[in-house]
Design a protein that fits this description.
Bound molecules: pyridoxal-5'-phosphate
Number of helices: 15
Low-confidence stretches: none
Distance between the termini: 49 Å
Structural class: alpha/beta
Largest sheet: 8 strands, mixed
Number of strands: 14
Strand content: 5-15%
CATH topology of the largest domain: Aspartate Aminotransferase, domain 2
Number of domains: 2
CATH superfamily of the largest domain: Type I PLP-dependent aspartate aminotransferase-like (Major domain)
Radius of gyration: 21 Å
Helix content: 40-55%
């Protein structure tokens, strides 16, 4: 009998391991399925704008790769990643203030794999992780697999509230601090420099590593740059970064930058996971960047996303009734909406779908529950016309139901 992907595995027959049966499929994936119905304007996904994918330049780089590296480009390769790309990433980081050498860099199959490798290497059942509240759902999925527990910390518009971090350290002796410090998914909030320094001070004093998940750091289109956690914290910080948001997410290429003495541990666990990241695409990205294409590409994205953010914010000001608050991110792909306390964004979701507009309700991103009155909007993926129309539909929904 063929078991469809949607069928629940029959535990008696297949004896699926309990740690897998206990996993929930991402609610966001379910929301995305509903959101992809015809005619629905979706602000739910975290998708970059497809028109920003530099297809011609990537094709050109691929041509160069086949000519220059031949068989090597499609042969089995090193688990730590191809040397050329690691060197280039280290040099780029150093140029931007994070002194890095090749042995600090491990290429991974997307930032998501970086998070997974860190969880695999560090987390034992019951270990506490400090996270922002709310936080990135994909990280929670990776941590849940290792049966982590969460010591959550509220944010204001400067990021984590440091008193709460201090209290959570005292109470739970966490194994790790996980932060999305730049243009956070889901809230769009960026941690201020004083908060970063205070967080680092606490982490270093208590010997707790910080995992800084930084996929959006390059996409700052407003406000003043803030030094990265890695730049300020050196070896106290392991950072995961990615080409997903500045090139294309389907490439599945990202990297980790961490202390040399532990990168071997991550390499070991990566070897178990997938031997190595797609070598052809690592060479392609190397050639693409070497041809000087990445920085102009990032500039194009910033211009595009800034326009879309501005359009969405203006439409919200025009359409949303009193009593609704939202963040105004200076970069990244998302903003975060807070409805009046008694209103459930999850309960309103089916009504939004009836009106052919979708968001991700926020409670999925709270590790220990809460956030029923919140939701996330993505502004990078929809067209200008759909942003205006979709926010108009949401505004009408809220005016009629709040
Ligand atoms: C905070 C955060 N970390 C990691 C990822 C995963 O990125 P990648 O495509 O590089 O695996 C995402 C993707 O949306 C994200 O928002």
């Amino acid at each position: 009998m063929v078991v469809g992907f949607n069928e629940k595995a029959r535990t008696d027959k297949w004896k699926i391991a309990s740690h897998v049966l206990g996993l929930e499929t991402s609610i966001i994936r379910e929301i995305l399925k509903i959101s992809s119905q015809p005619g629905v304007i979706s602000f739910a996904g975290g998708l970059p704008a497809p028109e920003m994918f530099p297809l011609d330049d990537m094709l050109e780089a691929l041509g160069v790769v086949f000519k220059k590296y031949g068989h090597t480009s499609v042969q089995y390769s090193l688990s730590r990643g191809i040397t050329e790309l690691r060197e280039l990433i280290a040099a780029r980081a150093t140029k931007r203030g994070t002194k890095s050498e090749i042995d600090n860099i491990l290429i991974v199959s997307g930032a998501q794999q970086g998070i997974e490798l860190v969880a695999r290497a560090f987390i034992e059942p019951g270990d506490y992780i400090i996270t922002e509240n709310p936080t990135y759902l994909g990280a929670l999925q990776a941590f849940n697999y290792y049966r982590a527990r969460y010591a959550t910390v509220e944010m204001d518009d400067e990021g984590m509230i440091i008193d709460q971090v201090e209290r959570q350290i005292e109470r739970h002796h966490p194994k790790m601090i996980y932060t999305v410090s730049n243009f956070q998914n889901p809230t769009g909030i960026t941690m201020s420099e004083p908060r970063r320094r205070a967080l680092l001070e606490l982490a270093i004093a208590n010997d707790i590593p910080i995992l800084d998940d930084n996929p959006y750091g390059d996409i700052r289109f407003a406000g003043k740059p803030v030094p990265t956690m890695k730049c300020l914290g050196g070896d106290a910080v392991i950072t995961v970064r990615t080409f997903s948001k500045v090139l294309a997410p389907g490439l599945r290429v990202g990297w980790m930058n961490g202390p040399k003495e532990i990168m071997g541990q991550f390499e070991k666990v990566k070897q178990c996971a997938d031997l190595h990241t797609n070598a052809l695409l690592q060479y392609m990205i190397y050639e693409y960047i070497s041809a000087g294409k990445l920085e102009p590409q990032i500039e194009r994205i910033k211009v595009d996303y800034r326009k879309k953010r501005d359009l969405m914010l203006q439409a919200m000001r025009d359409e949303f009734p009193q009593g609704i608050r939202w963040t105004e991110p200076e970069g990244g792909l998302f903003l975060w909406v807070t409805l009046p306390g008694h209103v459930s964004a999850k309960e309103l979701f089916p009504r939004a779908i009836e009106r052919k507009v979708a968001y991700v309700y926020g409670e999925t991103s709270y590790p220990n529950g809460g956030g029923e009155n919140t939701f996330r909007l993505n502004f990078s993926n929809a067209s200008h016309a759909d942003i205006v129309e979709g926010i108009g539909r949401l505004g009408k929904l809220f005016r009629e139901n709040i």
